Amino acid sequence: MKKHHYNIKTVWTGNEGTGTKNYKTYNRNHSINGEGKYTEILGSSDPAFLGDKTRYNPEDLFLSSISSCHMLWYLHLCATNNIIITSYKDNATGCMEESPNGNGKFTSVTLNPLITITNSSDKEKAMALHEKANEMCFIANSCNFKIKHKATILIE
């Protein structure tokens, strides 16, 4: 089995002089960067957990990872099956449930890709490839819940 290794640098940038002296007042802002990456990601926590709503939170990035992994596998499968995709947009949604003790987990994710293809005869096959993309997606295979797909395919 091939192994792939990844490294990310996460730096807390929210120390405003008093550190984490008070739970309600310390800043959750941080930056995420990887070696050789062009831009850093500005992160925080979800506003429900006192974060900055203008920055990406871990839950956003988790959902984005599922959506982009599925898209990349789907594009690969369409290319190798001679289905020409000219547009792919996904409005992914997810639900995280928080327990009374404060821990939580994602319980559902739904991908809602809107895809444009060039040939109407490929529509059925293009739709079926979502299942195969889900089987191949590394991130989906790492989740402990089923990822739903509600794709819409348009003909160019």
From TrEMBL:
Record-linked InterPro entries: KH_dom-like_a/b, OsmC/Ohr_fam, OsmC/Ohrsf, OsmC_Ohr_Peroxiredoxin
Taxonomic superkingdom: Bacteria
Record Pfam families: OsmC (PF02566)
Protein name: Organic hydroperoxide reductase OsmC/OhrA
